[in-house]
Structures are given as structure tokens and as C-alpha cells.
Amino acid sequence: MAKAVLTPQAENFPAWYQDVIARAELAENGPARGTMVIRPWGYAIWELIQADMDRRIKATGAQNVAFPMFIPMSFLEKEKQHVEGFSPELAVVTHGGGEELAEPLVVRPTSETVINHYFAKWIQSHRDLPMLLNLWNNVVRWELRPRMFLRTTEFLWQEGHTAHATAADAAAETERMLQVYRQFMEESLAISVVVGEKSPGERFAGADQTFTCEALMRDGKALQMGTSHNLGYNFARAFDICYLDADGERRHVATTSWGTSTRMIGGTIMVHGDDHGLRLPPAIAPHQVVILQLDDAVETATEVGRIADALRAAGVRTHVDARTHTSFGRRSVGWELKGVPVRIELGARELAAGRATVVRRDDRSKTTVALDGAARAATDLLGEIQQGLLAASRSFREEHTRPVTDLGEFTRRVGDGGLFLAAWSGTPESEQALGEIGGATIRCIVDADPPASHCLVTGAPAKHAVLIGRAY
Amino acid sequence: MAKAVLTPQAENFPAWYQDVIARAELAENGPARGTMVIRPWGYAIWELIQADMDRRIKATGAQNVAFPMFIPMSFLEKEKQHVEGFSPELAVVTHGGGEELAEPLVVRPTSETVINHYFAKWIQSHRDLPMLLNLWNNVVRWELRPRMFLRTTEFLWQEGHTAHATAADAAAETERMLQVYRQFMEESLAISVVVGEKSPGERFAGADQTFTCEALMRDGKALQMGTSHNLGYNFARAFDICYLDADGERRHVATTSWGTSTRMIGGTIMVHGDDHGLRLPPAIAPHQVVILQLDDAVETATEVGRIADALRAAGVRTHVDARTHTSFGRRSVGWELKGVPVRIELGARELAAGRATVVRRDDRSKTTVALDGAARAATDLLGEIQQGLLAASRSFREEHTRPVTDLGEFTRRVGDGGLFLAAWSGTPESEQALGEIGGATIRCIVDADPPASHCLVTGAPAKHAVLIGRAY
Q1: Which candidate in A28, A33, A55 is best for mutational testing of the B interface (most B CBs within 10 A)?
Q2: pLDDT digits over A17-57, tens only?
Q3: Which homologous superfamily is B282-396 in?
Q4: Of A37, A44, A97, which is closest to B118 when you measure between CB atoms?
Q5: CB contact under 8 A, A30 and B144
Q6: Second CATH level (architecture) for the domain B401-469
Q7: What are the pLDDT digits (tens) for B246-264?
Q8: Between the CA of residue B435 and those of A363, B223, B253, B430, what are the distances in Å?
Q9: What number is the ipTM of this complex?
Q10: Cα B155 to Cα B147: distance, rounded to the nearest angstrom
């Protein structure tokens, strides 16, 4: 089989990443700096992610809504930390309909401010709570170092915004959505993630607490895959969002927000992809099975159609590739690049032997199965591949997570990649000092005993166990 | 039953429209002029429209993609008529990331320019054709007289963009999508539409031909519900989109575009709504059946649950309203306002009689049915209501369409509303003169014999039969 024309991961991981996005026809750069065009294969993956995530979000009771993308600058200025955090990343509309605007409009970098303005109108009584809203939309954050799917000026995402009667309810919602995200990533993206709280330096601008799902890419760098923020009373006070409780007492609500984006596609590429291209978990593969029809014989086409029908009847997303004028090598390499989990190959020779060839994308192994059992064998493989990719992702992360108690050792080894479990004092100074060591950051605080009694960086008494590493 | 608190349609139709949008909690104005917040009930309608339309679009072979919303100004300037048409409506980003941009970015008013730029990269050979792409996104056209759902500065829509080997293929695609739209509007929105070509004055900026689906609202004004444009070679030449044909000859492609938007929700409100609120066609009703549980007795709740289960098993979107602390009048009026097609009322009294009350939203008639047959009766009603709304929409349009051959008569009657079938000479002068008569415009050229031998306006020889009327 011809070798896929990708830069090998071991040689240059960022070049491999760009190659696979181009060759699998996932996306390309847009004309304006930092923007992205998502092509049919990439967008079909996004549609599957959306449908799955949307179902999980609605199951929590949230309802979908749409808010305008233009936000008056004055709205952003109401929450001090929020505007400070987002100001450097804003795109600003100054002209509309041929005239200069009296007040510039910001293209939403996130929608807390505009949604909280409406929360204040819509929420009157404790009977209106909790209010659980979700939006699927596009947001803009100006990026100086854009990278497709991971960091683009405009990106597609979902953002949830909720209001609650008590701080405890908001804390519970923050945790609930963090777990919804973790489950989605594990069950659908087949990516094992660590969940934990962000350190203050990595917190969302305006949040009391930010929680994250962190995954480890195959180059040893971490990726923040989704975040859930407990906003406490910060936005409720800034926007004066109040309700009358059961005793007629006027109280502020407590709010949360949470989001996941097209960045998850970037994570899926970098966790599962290999030197032959993408390896898509079946749950988000636009074609779960491709049947490669090897010749134009009527008998071949008939049998291909029969297997395709059986697969579709079993609910498997199936594509028949009948481009018999295109070489076998080109076709099989193409589907490998695109990461289709299972390939069935069928031509006159297979038909004569009464067996079809079945190829797994995960380990690239080939077997032959009786024609009658081909659909069933392919369907079974999908479950195996989904589980296998998750298990591999978990092993990889665990093997590349090591406790570290010596600053010198950490400094020498941080460049190797992976995650380091360390003791941390919790001070801003130690967090900042860490950032100067090989570009590492605290990925999250984890629920574990610190591996030492004193902070890795400052030597002060340890307060938390943290995972440290370089990240995208 | 309490009367819904809406301005009656006959008294003030625009006020009724605003009232029903507010009281049914569909949407409200956004903070920036002309923008809109779509609330859960309105957005759930949009999600049903999207899912249905998306299925129909994909059935034609089109694939979904995403393109950036920021388009360099220079792209728009490539097609002369296009930029002239859209310039007055543009929103312009002049600052990003804290700095003034070297080239201002336009927030897409539509995506022909950026997509055709990529068509030129992606299309090389006749084997790449046709290329059929569709986008679900948000666009911005600055509106001086915004009206919710009908004309908002930002709106949600789908825009299709296709490239073809020949002008005939592009013409066929334009017609195919026009019919997809017509079928969707009739089958799902239960709105009878006239399809026809737009006159030059109403054409899309940059199109050779624009075709439209026109519907008639209950106040006698027309609404353009969706358009399909044959762009001929205009964009292909401007963006130099070429392919090698089977003989190795380099040729320009021919392109089309077509779109429908949240405006369809406005049309659905104004075609079906009455003085009691919305009347939603079951195909796009978020709740198709609401069961009003009238008391908290265990037996009542059990029977309500049983009927709900039976409805859901039959694939009916069913909601149980168990807010027994809220008055019956308030609840029933609320669901009437929201347009839920069928309501089942059930309490101890109904249970004792062994019958449930079933209320149709379309004619507000009530019947009682045996408890065992309630789910089946409600399910059957949904089909009847869907067909009945379409039939009513067709009758209304036909009754309010009349031939007119005398300019004086037209001038006197145009203010009454409705559509007028007239003979037209086809000249720009006559089209312009028409616009000065009571604000009427040519809605479309129809496939019929002109009702007179000479143009209604100029008296020149008639070339077309046209429908004329005032429009949103």
C-alpha cells in the first residue's frame, strides 16, 4: 500500500498536524488572518459532535436560544475583570449602513454580558429559577498566533449560561456540566481527560472558579478541551439580576457559564491521529464504514449493495466508494487519511472466495470474513475501535504523567512533554515563576495528595496537588 | 375562557404581530439596533425548521460547510453589481486586537464572494463538478426599518452555493432548489406559495435571474419567503473559476445561490396566527400535543402519563403541563398563544366519565374522546390540522388574488391588499412607475397569459403576466 504523504509525527508534529488537516480536507485558512474555512469532511464531524453534545445538554434541562453577535461596548464594561480579560482580543464594528456608529459594537467574544442583561429582565421570582440556556454560535477573539481548530479568530462553539437561586446551586451546575463534558469526551471523542479546577492565573475573566477538561496530545502537550465556570455573584451584581425568594426577600442570583468548541476537533486529531492520517472514533465518524467496490461487475455491485443495506439497517453510517476508475492505492490511502474506522474491500476475487476483506483503521490490521458475516463483523469492530481508542488515550496519558518533587529535575524534563504531578503553594508568585520554566503552566488542581510537603517552585508549604505541563 | 390579550388583527396588524411575538415568548429586540434575541420557544421552532430543511437540502447532494464571517472589503469589490447592491447595508470591522486594521473587514451580508474565491481553488476538472455547498450561519445587513424575524440587522439562515459545468446545469439547479423551498413551505410550514421569477428591479445583486417563493399574509401584504438565484457566469468571471472539460478545454463554471432564513418564522406567524395567538403547523411545533393535567390526584397523573407515553411512542412531541398551582385559564390561554396544535385536558371529572377533552388550536373546537382513544385521536388531528392550515392558506391567497386591467381601478384598490394579476411590458420604466402607486411592487413574473394585451402601467404591448402587491 502506498504510504500517506504526511510529515511523520516524530519528525515535526506541528507540520504533521497541518498536513493532515489539508490532506484529509478538514479545513483551510480563511482570507482574513486567523479565520478558517471548514470543508465538508470537517464540518460533518462537527455536525456529529453538535448533535451528540446538544442531546446531552438538553438532557440537563437547558434550552437553546440565540443572542445577537453585536454587543454594545458599554455592556462589556459592566464587569471589570471581564472587560480587562477580553479587551485585547476584541473585534470592533465602527461603521454600519454607511455611517459611523455612535457607540462601537463589539463582535461577541463570549455572551455573558448580553445574556445577563436579559436575565435581569426575565428573572423576577424564585419560580423562574434555575434558568438554563445554551447557544450554538460563532464568536471572535483576535488571535496573534492562530492555529487551525485550536486557536482561530472566529470559532464555532456552544456556550451555556445559567442562573440559580443559591451559590450552592450554581456550584452544582458548574460540576454537572463539567461531568457532561468529561463523559462526552470519553464516550464520543474517545479521549481520556483529567478534570480539575484552574489556578487563578488561568481562570475565565470574571469567574470565581473555572473547571477544565484537560487532555494530553501525542506530542506530549496538553489541551484544554472544555471549561465550566462558576461566576458566583460577579455578573449578577454587575447586571443587577435579582429574584424574590419564597419569603418575598429580594436576592441576587448566582450564575455559571460553560463552553466547548471546534477546538475539540483539533484535540481529536492530535490524540488519535497517526502517520497515516486521522483515526476517527466511530461515534463522530461521518462514514463509519466505507465499502471499496473493486470492479464494475454486476455481481460485485450487487453484493456491495447488499452489505451496505445491511449496515445501514443496523444504523451504521455507510459509504460505498464505487470509483473504480481511481486506483485502489489512492482510494484506500484517501480513506485512511480521512480516518474512516472500518473499510470493507470487495471485488470479483473476494466474491469467488465467498469472503470480503475487512480493514481496521486503528491498527491497520486486515482479516477476511464470510460475505454473510461482513456487515456484522464491521459493526462489531466499530464498538471495539471506539473502546480501544479510549483505552489507548488513557494509557498514553497515564504513562506520560509523572510525579515530580525536584525543581531541577522538572526544569530538565519539562521539554520532554507530558504532565507532571507536583505540590503547589497556591500563591500567584509561584504560578508566575512556573510559567518561566520551559513555558509550562498549571493545567489544573487535582483531587490528590500533593507528592511533597512543600511547593515545587517556592518551597512554601504545599496546598494543592497540580498537574503541570506545556499546553496548546 | 379568558381572552388572549393581543391587539386584534383587524384593529392593527403590525401591533398584533409585535404582541404575539412578545406574549408567545418567541423573541425580543436585542440591545444593538435591529438585532434580535430568539427565546426558547422561537428557537425550538427554528431548530425544527433547520432539521427539516437540512434533510431536504442534503437529499439534493449538497454538503454543509462553514466559511468565515469576516470578508476582506476587496473580495466584495470584485463583482461590480454585487458590491453596489450590498454597500449601503454593510457592517464594517475597522479594529481588531486593539489595533486599526490595514484592510477593513466586512461582516458577511451573504457569502458569494468568499465562497467563489475558494471555488476557484477547489475546482480544477469537470470531475469536481457539480460542487454543491450549503451553510447554516448568521449574516448582517444594516436595516433602517427593522422588524422582528422579517428584517433584522443580523439574521440566521442557510445559504447554498453551487458551481456547474454548464449554464443549463446552473439553471436546473436554480429551479430544483426553488422547488425544494416550495415543497418545504407547503408541506412543513403549511404555507401556499407562488413561485416565479423576480423582475430586474427586485433581482439579487449579481444574479442573471432570481426566483422567489411569495406568500400572502393575513393582512393582505406579500412576503418573499425564499429565493434561488441563477448567477450565470458573473461570479465565475469575477473570481476566475475555471475547469478543464473532458476535452481538456478550459471553461468557466456557472454558479447559483439560494437562501431561506428566520424570516420564514415571521411568515408562519402572519399566515396562520389569529387573535388568540400563534397557530403552529404540527410539523414545526415544538410541542405538538400538550396534556393539561387538571389536578394532583394520583389517578389523574397516572392517566396523563399513560397518554403521554402512548403519544411519544407514536413519535408525537408531547408536553405534560402539571402546573396545577396555576389557573386553568392562564394555562390554556398560554398554550393557545404559543400555538400548540392539540391540547388534551384531563382531571378527576374527566377520569370519572372515562373521557378526555381534546381541543384543536386551529378552529378552537372541543370534543371528548374515550381515554383509551385519546392518544390516537390527538395523533390523527395533527395530520388534519397540518392539511387544514395549508388548505386555508391556499384559499386565502386565491381569494385575494384578482386580475386587474385598469390602472385607475388598481390605484383605488391596491390599498386593500392582496395580489393583483396584471399585464406588464417588462421595461424598467414601468417597473419604477409601479412602485409609486401605493407602494406596490412586482412580486414575481408568473407562468400565465397576461390578463390584457397591454401593460397595466405604460400601455405598451404586454410581455408577461405578473403578480403585483404591497410587500414586507
Answers
A1: A33
A2: 999 999 999 999 999 999 999 999 999 999 999 999 999 99
A3: Anticodon-binding domain (3.40.50.800)
A4: A37
A5: no
A6: 2-Layer Sandwich (3.30)
A7: 999 999 999 999 999 999 9
A8: 69, 16, 36, 9
A9: 0.96
A10: 11
